[in-house]
Amino acid sequence: MSPENRNYVVLVDPQGQAIGVEEKLKAHQKGLLHKAFSIFVWNSKNEMLLQQRNLNKYHFGGLWSNTCCSHPSPDEDLAQAAHRRLQEEMGFYTPLTQAFSFIYKAADPKSKLIEHELDTVFVGIYDGEIRPDLQEIEAYRWVTLDALTQEMAENPEQFTEWFKICLAMMEEKQLLPQI
């Protein structure tokens, strides 16, 4: 994959069929529907790995979110992209399982950029060392679902919109670890 391809996203129709490519920033300025993925990793204690997005991210900077999220490059399949970004952002590899996909739209009030994504959710389990890229993330932590639920109820503005939507859908689909 060429480095310049990372600056483009794959545009899709509501059925998920590719209809073109666009520069990442332009797609977010225009709110164009594009492919994305969200990764959720748990450890053997049923704690979820969260990341706080780097404060300098072009949108939703400083907010807490799922383990990793990004976009596939035009020449890359989703699973390949998910593994690549997990390694780049969090510094580890673990097998991932594709769980489900959904469409959402959310505007960042600070940057005025719009996420309009066909988001595919991947899940995995990992108990090893985290070696984050601090250019990508501000911080990370493991959290129980009970603690996360309480924190999200008290401070919803500290979490990304897609994370809140994904988590609710995972609960609805009974994909969260049973304690």
List the helices and strands and how they pair.
Layout: E1 8-12, E2 18-23, H1 24-30, E3 34-42, E4 48-53, E5 64-65, E6 68-70, H2 78-90, E7 97-107, E8 114-125, E9 137-143, H3 145-154, H4 161-172
Parallel strand pairs: 3-8
Antiparallel strand pairs: 1-2, 3-6, 4-5, 4-9, 7-8
CATH topology (fold) name: Nucleoside Triphosphate Pyrophosphohydrolase
Strand content: 25-35%
Give the CATH superfamily: Nucleoside Triphosphate Pyrophosphohydrolase
- What is the H/E string? EEHEEEEHEEEHH
Q: What's the average pLDDT? A: 94
The low-confidence runs, each spanning 5 or more residues with pLDDT under 50, are none
Oligomer: single chain
* Number of separate strands: 9
Number of helices: 4
Coarse shape: globular
Count of structural domains = 1
* Major beta-sheet overview: 4 strands, mixed
Spatial strand sequence of the major β-sheet: 6-3-8-7
End-to-end C-alpha gap: 41 Å
Percent helix, as a range, is 10-25%
Q: Helix/strand-derived class?
A: alpha+beta
CATH structural class? Alpha Beta
CATH architecture: Alpha-Beta Complex
- What gyration radius follows from the Cα positions, in whole Å? 15 Å
Structure description:
- 23% of the residues lie in helices and 34% in strands.
- It is α+β, with helices and mostly antiparallel strands and 179 residues long.
- The protein has a single domain, classed as Alpha-Beta Complex (Nucleoside Triphosphate Pyrophosphohydrolase), CATH 3.90.79.
- The protein is globular.
- The termini are far apart.
- The model has no long low-confidence stretch (mean pLDDT 94).
- It holds the Pfam family NUDIX.
- InterPro entries: Idi_bact, IsopentenylPP_isomerase_typ1, NUDIX_hydrolase-like_dom_sf, NUDIX_hydrolase_dom.
- One of its GO terms (cellular component) is cytoplasm.
- Keywords: Cytoplasm, Isomerase, Isoprene biosynthesis, Magnesium, Manganese, Metal-binding.
